[in-house]
Write a structure and sequence with these properties.
7-stranded mixed sheet; 203 residues; 8 helices; alpha/beta
Length: 203
């Protein structure tokens, strides 16, 4: 069974988290993970002005997701940076193109989850996850979050992302902070959790 991990990453933080989700999925017997990007909508000159050209080149080897892949997957996990407390425009545009899938119920019953990144601790992690989950529910998906069985959510000895709604990371105001070990383990846990539930539902 296949868990499709669909993400947008400008500077690489979400791509790193996506890889950790995939590692978690692959820890479950008979489960595979497939990484896909959503299409870029920013012009190259804007990406250059944002200082993201090299990061985008590094991500170019990951294929762009097709709508057909969404329906073919056994489960889907979406990853997005936060933009003003919501998902990024690239992810929104991609999901807005899934109307035909919604019309025929192509994602009904599939497990789904979301992970994200923000610049600051209070930059909208939970609102982004909840806003994204709304789209999954409209598609009839079975939403899977990050339960408190992942004890790393309760840590008080360091700054860390993560919530019951999904794994998160904090990039810092200048993007210099990379996902911590705890945040990556949260992503692995969520991937493993979704894969386990998918396997049970498919059995």
């Amino acid at each position: 069974m296949n868990v499709l991990i669909v993400y947008y990453s400008l500077y690489g933080h979400i791509a790193t988290m996506a890889q950790a989700v995939a590692e978690g999925v692959q820890q479950v017997p008979e489960m595979t993970a497939t990484l896909r990007r959503v299409p870029e909508t920013l012009p190259e000159d804007v990406i250059a002005k944002m200082g993201a050209t090299e990061a985008q080149k590094a991500l170019a080897g990951v294929p762009v997701c097709t709508l057909e892949e969404l329906e073919a997957a056994d489960a889907i996990v979406f990853g997005t940076p936060t933009r003003f407390g919501n998902m990024c425009g690239q992810m929104r545009q991609f999901l807005d193109a899934t109307g035909s899938i919604w019309n025929r119920g192509g994602l009904v019953g599939k497990p789904g989850g979301v992970f994200c990144s923000t610049a600051t601790q209070h930059g909208g992690q939970e609102t982004t996850l909840m806003a994204s989950i709304q789209t999954l529910l409209h598609h009839g998906m079975v939403v899977v979050g990050l339960p408190y069985a992942f004890a790393g959510q309760l840590r008080m000895d360091e700054i860390t992302g993560g919530s019951p709604y999904g794994a998160t990371t904090i990039a810092g105001g200048d993007g210099s902070r990379q996902p911590s070990d705890n945040e990556l383990e949260a992503a692995r846990f969520q991937g493993r959790h979704i894969a386990t539930i998918t396997r049970k539902l498919g059995g």
